[in-house]
Amino acid sequence: MSSLRRLYESLPNEAQYVAKKGYNLTKETERSTIMYLLDTNVISTLDRSDLKSHPEIEYYAHDKPEQHTFVAPTVPGKDDIIQEAIRRDRWRDDLTTLDDKKDPKYSVECHEPFVAELPNITIFGPHALARTPNRELPLEVKANLRDRGGSFAAMFRSTLRWFGRVNTMKSIIDPGPSDQNFEVAASILTGRKNTTPAYGHWLVEILPRIRRIKHYQRQTGKNPIILVNPNITDWQIETLELVGVDTSNLIKWEGGQASVDRYVLPMWAKTKWCTSDIDWIREQIANGVDYEKHLDRFSSRIYLSRANMDRRQVTNREQLVDTISDYGFESYSPESMKFAEQVALFKQANIIIGPTGSSFTNIIFSADANIIELFQPENFITWQFELSQVLDHEYHALFGDGVDENDNTINPHHQDFCISPDQVTDLLEKII
């Protein structure tokens, strides 16, 4: 817990209310200012079409675009929550018949996978935002998302906060000489807090960027150094090795400013799953770990416990696990397992149950599985549902009852909840 958080929690309730109100007002003012600068082109940006058509940028496509059509899950009494979650993700390309209760479909367009080479770039700040000689900032450093939560605008705000407003604007307007220079460099910085490894995002969003960097290497014969988060974990380094990265080429980016003669910018496909990317990750990792020796150790019916996590707990987990054990289920904590064991666990699984979380991303190693994702009463996340459909799994969502719904200091997505064992077994009776 940060010192600021401890200070906040030590305040009386009235003071907490005032402090939170002031913080939210300041944050909204910053967001509005940043969006004004972007909307009026005071800060110029480059989107994917700009990268492809720019006369000074080399653009290398390495696969075809994809389109996926999803049928929204239907849960009695929860359809409005599910459909609102889908609409909340503003980058959706086509909601098609989502309003039709009998046929709630929507489509997602996946851009052709590509990597671009930009000349004479200045990178700056904790997220290594990139600036061209014409003072243009590529949006692809944050998945080409310009103006929503978790977007380039949010990353720009974070840069202002941690790199400083004066330093940020100086790097954009007139960066001057940099402290260091890279001849050829790429970045796979995650854009998330240093305390958040984000396993799922890493596996299916960040690792595909390595696929694109490898395509660049084949096309040009150049071998870029790769900028990574300063707090990169051992398991992240292990996965990079599994997909063929020479870890001697990794450089921990501590912030500041640097010049790059040739900046390699791989597409970041954020929750727009390219099947070819997932196939590549699965093949690279499965071929790189000795998972076969673990296959006989695990049940084919697994419950993902989140027992070692500090949020999103099923508070009656023991009761639930005891009930579903009659159906052959065993409880596992993938976050405490070796990577080869995780691959084996999901490789042979045919029914997977658990509270929503990153461990579900390992379903990329499963085949024809039934996925049962457990949620808080008023919360739905599209992430694992869409991934399940892309992978041709059968997906089911169940909603529990809240236990700390009145605590407005906890993000609803992170609140603990309980789930009726009968609700789960009723669904299992239909599946098995």
Q: What's this entry about, in short?
A:
It comes from Natronomonas aquatica. The chain folds into 4 domains: 1-42; 44-60 and 111-274, no CATH class; 66-110, no CATH class; 289-431, Rossmann fold, CATH 3.40.50.
Approximately what portion of the residues adopt beta-strand conformation? 15-25%
Query: What is the count of β-strands?
Result: 18
Overall shape: it is: globular
Number of domains: 4
Largest beta-sheet details? 7 strands, mixed
Helix/strand structural class: alpha/beta
- First-residue to last-residue Cα separation: 44 Å
**What's the Cα radius of gyration?**
23 Å
Percent of residues in helices comes to 25-40%
- As residue ranges, the low-confidence spans are none
Q: On the 0-100 scale, what is the average pLDDT?
A: 88
Number of DSSP helices?
13
Pfam families: Glyco_transf_61 (PF04577)
Organism: Natronomonas aquatica
Protein name: Glycosyltransferase family 61 protein
Domain Glycosyltransferase 61 catalytic: 199-367
Keyword list:
single chain; 432 residues; alpha/beta; seven-stranded mixed beta sheet; five-stranded parallel beta sheet; 18 strands; 21% strand; globular
Describe the protein's architecture and organization.
The chain is an alpha/beta fold and 432 residues long. It has four domains: 1-42; 44-60 and 111-274, no CATH class; 66-110, no CATH class; 289-431, Rossmann fold. It has 13 helices and 18 strands. It has helices spanning 3-10, 13-39, 48-53, 79-88, 152-163, 165-173, 199-220, 234-242, 275-288, 317-324, 339-347, 382-390, 421-431; strands at residues 44-46, 58-61, 66-71, 105-110, 114-124, 129-131, 136-138, 180-187, 225-228, 250-252, 257-266, 301-304, 330-332, 351-355, 370-375, 394-399, 401-402, 417-418. Strands 2, 5, 6, 8, 9, 10 and 11 form a seven-stranded mixed beta sheet that branches. Helix 10 (317-324) links the parallel strand 12 (301-304) and strand 13. InterPro entries: Glyco_transf_61_cat.
